[in-house]
Specification:
alpha+beta, 3 strands, globular, disordered N terminus
Length: about 90
C-alpha cells in the first residue's frame, strides 16, 4: 500500500486515506480512519470481490463515505491509487 509519511499535494482535494496537513497546506498526511477503510478495500479486492461487493462490505461494517454514498468510481480509484495489480494487501 502506498503509505509515505507525507505526500506532495497535486490537487486541492486529497485522495481517500489522506487529509490536508494543518501545519503545511502543501502536504497531505495519512488519515487513520480512512486508512483502515483503504486496507479493507484492498483486502476485499484481493479476495476477488467486485466493486459492488466491496461497497456492500463497507456498508455492512458501517463505514461512512466522504459524500452521500459509496460510489463504484470511488472504490476503483482507491484500488488504483493504493494497490498495484496482483499486489497482496498487507495489514501493518
Amino acid at each position: 500500500m502506498n503509505t509515505p509519511t507525507s505526500r506532495r499535494k497535486s490537487s486541492c482535494h486529497p485522495p481517500y486515506g489522506w487529509r490536508n496537513d494543518p501545519n503545511d497546506k502543501k502536504r497531505w498526511i495519512p488519515c487513520m480512519i480512512e486508512e483502515h477503510i483503504v486496507l479493507t478495500v484492498g483486502e476485499e479486492h484481493a479476495k476477488g470481490k467486485s466493486l459492488n461487493g466491496i461497497i456492500a462490505v463497507l456498508k455492512e461494517r458501517g463505514y461512512q463515505p466522504r459524500g452521500k454514498q459509496w460510489e463504484r468510481m470511488t472504490i476503483g480509484r482507491i484500488i488504483k491509487q493504493n494497490f498495484k495489480e496482483g499486489e497482496e494487501c498487507q495489514n501493518t
